[in-house]
Amino acid sequence: MVIAEFRYKLNKVERGYNKRTLYVNLSNMQVASKPVSQEMKEKFIGGRGFNLWLLWNALPRDRFVKWDDPENEICIACGPLGGTPVYPGSGKSIAVSISPLTDTVVDSNVGGYFGPYLKFAGWDALEIQGKAKSEVVVLIDGDEGKVQIENASQLPSETYPITDHLAKKYGGENDRCVSIVSSGPGAEHTRFGCLNLSWYDAARKIHRFKQAGRGGIGTVLRNKRVKAIAVKYSGKISVDTNGPADPEMVKQVGTAHSQEIRNLDPTQNEMASAGTTHLVLIMNDFDLLPINNFRFGSNPEAEKLGREVYRKKFHKGFDGCWMGCAMSCAHGVKDFELKTGPYKGQKVFVNGPEYETIAGVGSNCGIFDADHVVEMNFYCDTYGLDTISVGTATAFAMECYEMGLIDKKATEGLDLRFGNKEAALELVHQMAKGVGFGVVIGQGIRRMKRLFAEKYGADSKVLQDIGMESKGLEFSEYVTKESLAQQGGYGLALKGPQHDEAWLIFLDMVHNLMPTFEQKAENLHWFPMFRTWFGLNGLCKLPWNDVVPEDNKETKEPAKVISHVENYAKFFSAVTGMKITRDDLIFMSERVYNFQRIFSLRMGFGTRQHDTLPYRAVGPVTREEYESRAERYDEQLKEKLGYNPQGRSTEEKMAVLRKYRETEYERLKDTVYARRGWNANGVPTVEKVKALGIDYPDVVDLLEKHV
After folding, report:
1. What is the mean pLDDT of the chain?
2. This model's pTM is above 0.90
3. What pLDDT, on a 0 to 100 scale, did the predictor assign at position 602?
């Protein structure tokens, strides 16, 4: 049943933009079109920038909006470069909302067809506000020029059947013309529900999924009683569909980059055959793979989760989550027979796993079973759960259980020892049903720490040290004890400890490309800014630095892969007609990056005190941790502090090391803040926002209150 309908005129995309955004209010069933101004394009570019601007202007000014208030929005956008089939990695969507985990603005990027289809169907961005009285589907039909809000009370609850049903309903014989955004029942009972965005695998004739996992935006979707958002676009997609200013230049830069990937990937990271699974053993070799709630960084059993294991499991064939992407890294396992849950005994296609899932629900929980990871991957997807938060939160609970901070009464009978894969799977099924200890895990680590202290008398200091969250967001899966650069990458990240903002651990610990303190601080400016640029334009970061030119090591700054940066500048100019240089990319990102920091300030966060880390991210918390690497830590005490560890107890040495490392992290904050043009409290200065051209009256008023 159609509840509301809105008709619109179909436009052609011009220079990467459709020049309007779509507004849907579910409380009053209002649908409207909003224009995209020239200033909006110049200052906020697209994607994440458009989303932040729309959300900023939609929220009331007189109070803090909570994640489950009707005024909160889910904004989804692509970007001017998104939807270009000849350029690798140009199928990204970016979602923005107020997070159920962090209580402030969060962004999450995801592959699939939705963002490009949304733009080609007529809209540069979508904002959904309000809360429906009953479950609905929002359909954006780019063939007929209509938006419909339909009753969804009879629609299935889980991602796979939701998508299959709607693809047949809206696509008919043309399965490829529809992309669906959905979540699942797990999102209704936890705070870390993910968004699943679909793409059609023509070779296998199935709809597959990528996830906007971080921050619980899927939880917001289900709270608004949205079962799904569907976009339909049946038109032919080519370079010209995006309306570039210089289509020949787009073809030239896109073809060159694609050919480089095809030539070099087989001898570099093998993304097209094994995806990000190659990282497992690299991280293990360098003591960076999370083991048992980040307590350790390596384990001899890691081979059971390595690339060669998953290479054999992955179904061979093209695996690009956007048309023509040469990276082709979205692998999956075909005909996997499930051992538990409502689909027990069925053979399914599983999208993944990728490195973060393997490390999160596998090694970090002390589980070295590849099939367990695949099963967890499937159920997290179909229930609408972020595998990173699920893995990290479960590992925290397991350590609390083993330390005696909680017991079987607290876990409702579950034996939560590290390595107990049956218990880990049971927790995920409980999350989907909204029962048992799974509901507690689903509140996230920050709220679990409070609960365990208040209800069970657990030591708050210990909980703080081992609870791997910052800003309320669970850590993604890298051990940072020995990488000050990645500590900053996590602690200073706007939304919380997610590697997509500043993934410096590989450059720092594996390639040793930033040995000095000053280099680390400088890179904590440049890399977050450049990575932000991908989210403004609808691009994937992997083609930038996961396959690099053969002579990259001989360049002045190999970590930046400058030849690719210059290629992106040409790509942007060719699509939009705006002539820019590689330095302009950083300036463009600085505007949006600073604006998001200010947005957090408006929400009551965004200052120095919120850029903290649990100590385990900085150094060894337990005696066992220190003594497992005693030679390393003793040597550091001698070299860096002139402290003689001979004859000292482990506790004495740990205390000295802790004071030093915590001081270094605070010193890093000071240096990075200064480099970014922020004051000592981590707040952008008025002078900085004026230089960036975002000195709007409400922005300046807010900053002046934090001088």
Report:
1. 96
2. yes
3. 97
* Full residue range of the structural domain in which residue 233 is found: 2-237
Predicted confidence at residue 606, as pLDDT, reads 96
CA distances from 696 to 355, 434, 682, 693, 700 (A): 41, 44, 19, 8, 6
91 contacts 112 by C-beta, under 8 angstroms: yes
CB 588 within 8 A of CB 537: no
Pairing assessment for the beta strands 136-141 and 2-7 based on DSSP bridges? unpaired
Same domain, 280 and 218: no
pLDDT at 509: 65
Number of domains in the chain: 3
| For residues 636-649, average pLDDT | 95
CA 329-334-339 angle, 5° bins = 120
Which one of 237, 259, 285 terminates a domain? 237
522/374 same-domain check? no
Q: In which region does residue 546 sit, left (phi positive, over 0), alpha (psi from -120 to 50) or beta (all else)?
A: alpha
Helices (H), 297-444: 307-313, 355-357, 370-383, 387-402, 421-433, 436-441
- Per-residue pLDDT tens digits for 413-423: 999 999 999 99
Residue that finishes a domain, picked among 237, 260, 291: 237
The pLDDT value recorded for residue 318 is: 86
Same domain, 31 and 118: yes
Is residue 656, in this structure, part of any structural domain at all? yes
**pLDDT over 80 (residue 502):** no
